[in-house]
């Protein structure tokens, strides 16, 4: 047997052993899935999928709640993304090396390297904490305001946008920017006119994808009490009103699908990847 | 400023570590002159072009452009010298995602403020568009004004690069191997376009060319380079068979090793 085959088998065996060890450590018991009554609850939950509620328990129409939930979900996502782009563009610029690595002065190259590595550390910090966790930290500090939810989304998303954009910049061919510098452009001009345009369509495409992710994050933030679809979902869950749960799940699904279709149409029109 | 040559390289040597790219080169090019640098790859043609616009500094010797010693110039002064020298790079140096108009407009970037160059690129005035259109007419592709540059053929993109150099209203144009990225049929048309543009505007032109034959047909003055040294510098009409062989006959050593690109 080849060396590669035997090392692959070692990895597989190792993973299997780790799985068994964790199961034992967690006292995993498959019988818990079939606890008395759990089947009935599951059936009740999925039966409710066929008859989502149109009225609340008090008999009022659910439509205002659904529309409010959708509106808040979109608003928090859009606000979060706007702020994320405002954070991500300058940070991504600083985190790329293209703005200094061809500078003739060694001193400026050194300074550039320091700034870029500081920006990359900052980005890593922003990204390493999930938006839900940011929201909980900010809730403690700022209370439950609109700004809290938007900033909670904007921090990790801004970090991700910055990271992706800085990579797009550094991977772009430099021929255009170099030609501009050779005919007298300042470094900023050659960057803005020669390099940045090469990244913009990929960046726009990625930012739009992140907007779809932000919608899901925004919905989930409702579990912390922000008035998005997740808030209505968690209320209905807590009160075991499964038909209502399905109403809000369908609303979320419809919203995501609508944005998905919009983005597909945009991609076709703009020729995005 | 009339007395000073446009480009004046005196006893210039360039070394990259162990490698000597140029050794004791003297070259003077005056306004209205069209000069072809010819020689095999690695002879130092591109190095001379880079010295001429100060994107490379000589290890020893001096480079003067319109009487100004490039070694003495700081950032802003060097930029203003560069703004007077058009460039047609081998790979064209265009931004493919931008429109032809935007690429041509960037020719004047060296003379524009930061805000001004943004305005030119994204919100050009009617006058700007008319000037760019006129330049595109001169290079034969006026209908491509609003086309995205990456939709153009290689030959058309090269014309955009030439149009950008013209729009710059330079005192000189440098072109690096302008025939290597277009099909052979266009090669002569491209060099002839460059030479006629230089003549009608009375500007200095330096073109690096791998092909001696094309150089011979279009330029009045040929500078042959071999191994970083000037092998000959004379009018095309006085070129001899001996000049040819001095340039291209390889020694047994050279056949075995690949010269630097």
Structure description:
The complex is a heterodimer of chains A (273) and B (261). Chain A has helices spanning 3-25, 38-47, 63-95, 106-128, 131-142, 146-171, 175-182, 187-221, 229-238, 242-270. Chain A has 273 residues and is an all-alpha fold. Chain B is of the alpha/beta class and 261 residues long. Chain B has helices at 45-52, 75-82, 100-105, 114-122, 126-139, 154-167, 184-201, 212-218, 241-248, 252-256; strands at 7-16, 19-29, 34-38, 60-65, 68-69, 85-88, 172-176, 204-209, 221-226, 229-235. Classes of the chains: A mainly alpha (273), B alpha/beta (261). The interface between A and B is medium-sized, with 21 and 34 residues.
Fold blueprint:
The complex is a heterodimer of chains A (273) and B (261).
Chain A: H1 3-25, H2 38-47, H3 63-95, H4 106-128, H5 131-142, H6 146-171, H7 175-182, H8 187-221, H9 229-238, H10 242-270
Helix pairs in contact in A: 3-4, 3-6, 3-8, 3-9, 4-6, 5-6, 6-8, 7-8, 8-10, 9-10
Chain B: E1 7-16, E2 19-29, E3 34-38, H1 45-52, E4 60-65, E5 68-69, H2 75-82, E6 85-88, H3 100-105, H4 114-122, H5 126-139, H6 154-167, E7 172-176, H7 184-201, E8 204-209, H8 212-218, E9 221-226, E10 229-235, H9 241-248, H10 252-256
Parallel strand pairs in B: 3-8, 3-9, 6-7, 7-8
Antiparallel strand pairs in B: 1-2, 1-4, 4-5, 9-10
Helix pairs in contact in B: 5-6, 6-7, 7-8
């Amino acid at each position: 047997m080849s060396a590669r085959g035997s090392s692959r088998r070692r990895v597989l065996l190792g993973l299997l052993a780790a799985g068994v060890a964790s199961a034992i450590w967690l006292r995993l018991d498959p019988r818990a899935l079939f606890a008395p009554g759990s089947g009935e609850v599951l059936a009740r939950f999925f039966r409710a999928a066929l008859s989502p509620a149109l009225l609340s328990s008090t008999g009022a129409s659910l439509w205002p709640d659904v529309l409010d939930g959708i509106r808040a979900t979109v608003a928090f996502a859009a606000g979060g993304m706007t702020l994320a782009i405002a954070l991500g563009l300058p940070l991504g610029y600083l985190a790329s090396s293209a703005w200094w690595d061809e500078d003739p002065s060694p001193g400026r190259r050194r300074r550039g390297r320091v700034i870029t590595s500081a920006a990359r550390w900052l980005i890593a910090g922003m990204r390493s904490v999930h938006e839900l966790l940011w929201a909980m930290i900010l809730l403690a500090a700022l209370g439950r305001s609109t700004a809290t939810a938007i900033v909670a989304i904007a921090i990790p998303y801004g970090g991700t946008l910055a990271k992706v954009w800085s990579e797009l910049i550094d991977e772009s061919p430099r021929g255009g920017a170099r030609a501009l510098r050779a005919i007298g452009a300042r470094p900023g001009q050659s960057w803005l006119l020669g390099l940045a345009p090469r990244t913009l369509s990929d960046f726009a495409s990625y930012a739009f994808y992140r907007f779809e992710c932000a919608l899901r994050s925004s919905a989930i933030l409702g579990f912390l009490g922000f008035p998005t679809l997740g808030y209505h979902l968690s209320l209905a869950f807590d009160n075991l009103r499964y038909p209502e749960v399905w109403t809000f799940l369908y609303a979320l699904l419809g919203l995501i699908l609508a944005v998905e279709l919009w983005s597909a149409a945009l991609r076709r029109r703009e020729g995005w990847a | 400023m009339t007395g000073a040559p446009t480009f004046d390289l005196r006893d210039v040597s360039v070394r990259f570590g162990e490698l000597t790219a140029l050794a004791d080169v003297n070259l003077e090019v005056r306004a209205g002159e069209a000069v072809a640098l010819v020689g095999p790859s690695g002879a130092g043609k591109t190095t001379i072009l880079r010295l001429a616009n100060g994107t490379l500094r000589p290890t020893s010797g001096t480079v003067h452009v319109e009487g100004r010693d490039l070694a003495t110039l700081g950032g802003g002064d060097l930029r203003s010298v560069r703004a007077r020298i058009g460039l047609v790079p081998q790979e064209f140096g265009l931004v493919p995602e931008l429109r032809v108009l935007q690429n041509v407009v960037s020719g004047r970037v060296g003379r524009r403020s930061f805000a001004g160059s943004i305005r030119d690129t994204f919100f050009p005035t009617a006058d700007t568009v008319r000037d760019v259109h006129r330049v595109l007419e001169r290079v034969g592709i006026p209908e491509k004004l609003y086309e995205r540059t990456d939709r153009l053929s290689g030959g058309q993109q090269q014309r955009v690069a030439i149009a950008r150099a013209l729009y710059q209203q330079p005192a000189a144009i440098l072109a690096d191997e302008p025939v290597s990225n277009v099909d052979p049929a266009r090669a002569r048309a491209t060099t002839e376009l460059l030479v006629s543009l230089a003549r009608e505007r009375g500007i200095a032109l330096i073109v690096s060319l791998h092909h001696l034959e094309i150089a011979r047909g279009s330029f009045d003055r040929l500078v042959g380079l071999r191994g970083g040294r000037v092998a000959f510098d004379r009018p095309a009409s006085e070129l001899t068979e001996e000049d040819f062989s001095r340039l291209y006959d390889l020694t047994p050593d050279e056949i075995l090793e690949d010269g630097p690109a």
